[in-house]
Amino acid sequence: MSFNDDAVQLTNDDASSCKLSAVQRGYWKDSYISFFYENPERKSPEISIGYYTRVHSVRYLLKEFIKKTEGNCQIVNLGAGYDTTYWNLKDDSLTPKSFIEVDFPAVTMKKCRIIKEQMDLLEKLQSEEDDIQLSRTEIHSNDYHLVSADIRELKQLEAKLQSCRIDTNLPTVFITECVLVYLDMEYSDRLLKWISTKFPTSAFINYEQVNMEDRFGEVMIVNLKRRNTELRGVEACQSVDTQINRFKRNGWKNVECLEMTNVYRNLSTSEKQRLEKLERFDEKDLLDQLLEHYCLMWANSDSNSVNLSDVTITDFT
Ligand SMILES: C[S@@+](CC[C@H](N)C(=O)[O-])C[C@H]1O[C@@H](n2cnc3c(N)ncnc32)[C@H](O)[C@@H]1O
């Protein structure tokens, strides 16, 4: 664990704060995020629309995956932070066999404590078949697991996933939402290769920066450095092509990547009108600039023919 790792963990607070600020202003509904963060600073409409597009598109892909596999699947969220997708999927009655979240122990410890204290969160984990096992940093229930691991350490990660009774032959979708960019390239390469080798029927959703070689990218890098956070994996974030190539060279067969500008464009007209009317919003250029610098990636390897390649990232309606 390094000084930089401590700062990286704090990025989870930023993400939670932005998500809660947007939820409080009606961009989307989430009954659980407020348990994990309090009193967020009010964020600008562009940031909230950006977060809406991120959350909506990632959840859309997850739901398609669950429907395609009829729930006979696993979800593994790497660097999950305070993500609340598990609880939101439960409310939509769209549940995988197993939902596994991984983060550094300092983050999982706080998440564990909050889940233990909040009945609304804890009762969703209840299951008749199994008792819930709770430790200081980890939770194991019938279908939800929260474990602490450094995802750069593959032996450690593998052991932790095994403690969640992961089945490498079951269709599995991995998520990294603003996570790979914090890892040195050698680590993200190894991680992606390991997953593509170990899980024959799998998909990967990656959301993170793109087009980072321009002035906007430079400013973001400088601002984060001031907060001791380095984007060590920024080399893969130069363009949509560098993002795609990283996955292809690490064994992923079908790979699609879209700038968030295009993801936003593909939302329905009525949804965009709703979002743009929620608050006084007159900085369309700023929104475009923000969306141009993030991307959504959908990769899959489909050895057991669940037809994962039918799921595409061009339709989010
Ligand atoms: C920007 S936050 C995103 C959190 C969550 N994915 C979201 O989108 O709300 C990045 C998360 O990745 C986690 N993370 C970064 N590097 C990691 C590593 N090597 N091992 C485990 N977790 C890591 C951080 O602790 C943090 O919670």
UniProtKB/TrEMBL annotation:
Look up the record and report any one GO term of the cellular component aspect. cytosol
Q: SUPFAM superfamilies from the entry? A: S-adenosyl-L-methionine-dependent methyltransferases
Source organism superkingdom? Eukaryota
Pfam families on file: LCM
The UniProt record lists the EC number as 2.1.1.233
Catalysis: reaction(s):
[phosphatase 2A protein]-C-terminal L-leucine + S-adenosyl-L-methionine = [phosphatase 2A protein]-C-terminal L-leucine methyl ester + S-adenosyl-L-homocysteine
TM stretches of this protein: none
Binding residues annotated for S-adenosyl-L-methionine, in chain numbering: 54, 79, 150-151, 177
The answer, when asked if S-adenosyl-L-methionine is one of the entry's keywords, is: yes
Q: Does the keyword Methyltransferase apply?
A: yes
Any GO MF annotation of the entry: protein C-terminal leucine carboxyl O-methyltransferase activity
Give a GO biological-process term: methylation
Instruction: Recite the UniProt keywords alphabetically.
Output: Methyltransferase, S-adenosyl-L-methionine, Transferase
Role this protein plays: Methylates the carboxyl group of the C-terminal leucine residue of protein phosphatase 2A catalytic subunits to form alpha-leucine ester residues.
Similarity comment: Belongs to the methyltransferase superfamily. LCMT family.
- Protein's recorded name: Leucine carboxyl methyltransferase 1
- Organism field: Dimorphilus gyrociliatus
